[in-house]
Amino acid sequence: MTDIDQLPVLDVDQHYYEPLDAFTRHCPKEWRERTVQTAVIGGRTRQIVGGKIDNTVTNPTFDPIVKPGVMAEYFRGNPHKRSLLDILSEREPIPSHYRDRDDRLVKMDEHGLQAIWMLPSLAMGYEEGLQLDPPAAAQAFKAFNRWLLDDWGYNYKDRIFSSPYLTFADIPTAIGEIEHGLANDARIFVVRAQATYTDDGWRSPGDPVFDPIWARLEEAGAVVVVHVGEVGGSGLDKYVQHRTNIIGDIASPLQIAVGHERAIANYLAALTCDKLFERFPNLKVASVENGAEFLPLSVAGLNRAGFQRPGYFASDPVEQFREHIWVAPFWEDNLLEVVEHMGVDHVLFGSDYPHPEGLAEPRQYEKVAAELNDPVAERKVMWDTAAKLTKLA
């Protein structure tokens, strides 16, 4: 770290930008038409997912790339009334530390970060296009995880903890990916907040059919990171034309108003109401880059489910939620309210670096943590809790 007097910090929400071969390097040729391909269409490089042109991002080369943190004021009220297209025009050639782990360590030292959880950018959008073909989804993310191991490793020098991606679409393959991750010292596994399409139709994430997956994750003491991703409009497609971008000038105002928090609220409520935590009392789930606006209604809803269905839950569903789930709020969320809902021991710090909607300087969040007015609580948010989850403390 640049200043040995600084307290250690673990940032649970950092990202790489995938190269074009992240899904193809290790994908068998016979699977490529059903998984991910790259093509030049109309003079532009595009990726084809499940046989369709993907619109998750307009430039999958990520070069040039929008600068980190340029949307900070936009999310704090947009005081200058700038359009999102104008803000996103602030681009630069892709820096090497977005794709090279040793260069990332140098940047972490500059930022004063002891450790980070490293999470996907592009990959969080690709399961949606593959979900109706479970074998293809399983093959695509198996290949993706091998690329991730090549370029980043799952634990690099006890500082960069990169997360294999799990799709529950094929249960044996998912268990195999967990075993592969654990054999390479993975501490975290990332999923999107969505039900899973299987050979038997749609299933809730807490459905007992997936118990073999959850059982292995619990046994390993791994953290399941539920990260924001493309989930098909969060049910709003019946109201408005769904667009993959739910922020800014091209999004429907309805998507902006109610879309973002629906997926994570539904997912975490499903885990609780499916009694997953009763079957797996040591399971750990972290909500990352989903913000915290969903918490008040989620807590109220689970409380209502508890008293309206007496005897259904073995214990208070709200307390189950608080015991098994950790939340990384957005930097613009009210941290005091998040702590009130979850308890300070279940709140994590995530900067979303280097995404444009995140913090350009991750430790800027210490100013937010200082609102707790308690050095012990601040340290829990910035280091202690995440370090314990990551088995660093």
UniProtKB/TrEMBL annotation:
UniProt keyword annotations, A-Z: Hydrolase, Lyase
One Pfam family cited in the UniProt record for this chain: Amidohydro_2
Q: Name one GO cellular component term.
A: cytoplasm
Keyword set includes Coiled coil:
no
Q: Which InterPro entries match?
A: ACMSD, Amidohydro-rel, Metal_Hydrolase
Please, one GO biological process term? secondary metabolic process
Q: Where is the Amidohydrolase-related domain?
A: 99-389
Query: Which species does this protein come from?
Result: Mycolicibacterium gilvum
What superkingdom does the record give? Answer: Bacteria
Q: Does the keyword Transcription apply?
A: no
Write down what this protein is called.
Amidohydrolase
Q: Which GO terms describe its molecular function?
A: carboxy-lyase activity; hydrolase activity
